[in-house]
Amino acid sequence: MPFLEHLEELRWRILWAMLALVICAIISFGLVYYFQALEILIAPIRDAYDSPDLQLIYLSPADPFFVTLRLAIYGGIILSFPILVYQIWSFLSPALEKEERRAIVPALYLGLLLFIGGVCLAYFAALPVTLEFFKAFLSDSLEGTLEINATLGFVVKMLIAFGAVFELPIVILALSLMGLVTPQFLRAKRRHAIVLITVLASFITPGDAITLTVMMMFPLILLYEFGIFLSAGVYRRRTKREEAYEKSLAPPDGSVGKD
Asked: What is the pLDDT of residue 226?
């Protein structure tokens, strides 16, 4: 296509993606409102403080609405993910080789599953332990009042942080497809990666060493090894394609110049 036609197609892809996001956010707003998603998010806080009747305060009459709207947008992004992937794929696929197209589509949906897995680990395991860690610093001279925006901001940021770092294999796969990293490089830098993972885990998951290892370090190390496996698969396929191409260029048996 000419450059202007590419821009026109990109404009329409973005418009359809935004429309899908708005529609899914509206649907998500109803789901968040009627199925009490807020109650699900504050359940670990109630368990940590041993207070089944714990209530969050709000400082503005509009706070409950905007909190619900924010949760609806998060839910809309998740619901519209297949449509967003389709729009991105439709725009990029003509520029990709056949092998790259086969690798990217499963990787995108694998990334969604990994993100959901990270969120679940944070919600069911890391968040309760983190809340218990912070609770240990309470004293008789302190009286806490949990505000809805700050509290939910803490919970949601932690869930998103876990989901984001669980995308590590997909990042490695993308870098391998672009030729920026190799399996040999990743294996050689394994010790450096473990150090970086330790530092990252210490920021995301405060707590003792056992919590740090179980909640973040150990899964990230496994994901790093999984990324090496994916990178090795990319380069195996690339090597086979190159060998097949070189073989196709070789002169047939019995031709002139063939020993």
From this structure: 92
Report long-range pairs for 203-212 (Cβ below 8 Å, ≥24 apart). 204/158, 204/161, 204/162, 204/165, 205/126, 205/129, 205/130, 206/130, 206/133, 206/134, 207/129, 207/130, 207/133, 208/133, 211/126, 211/129, 211/130, 211/133
Q: What is the pTM of this model?
A: 0.78
Q: Which distant-in-sequence residues (6+ apart) come within 8 Å of 182 by Cβ?
A: 176, 231, 235
Residue that wins the pLDDT comparison between 40 and 103: 40
**pLDDT score for 127:** 87
- Buried/exposed 8-47: b ≥16 CB within 10 Å, e otherwise: eeeeebeeebeebbeebbeebbeebeeeebbeebbebbee
Give the closest residue to 103 by CA, choosing from 222, 230, 227, 226.
Answer: 230
Give the domain ranges of the chain: 1-95, 98-138+146-247
State both tokens at 254. Answer: 């019995």
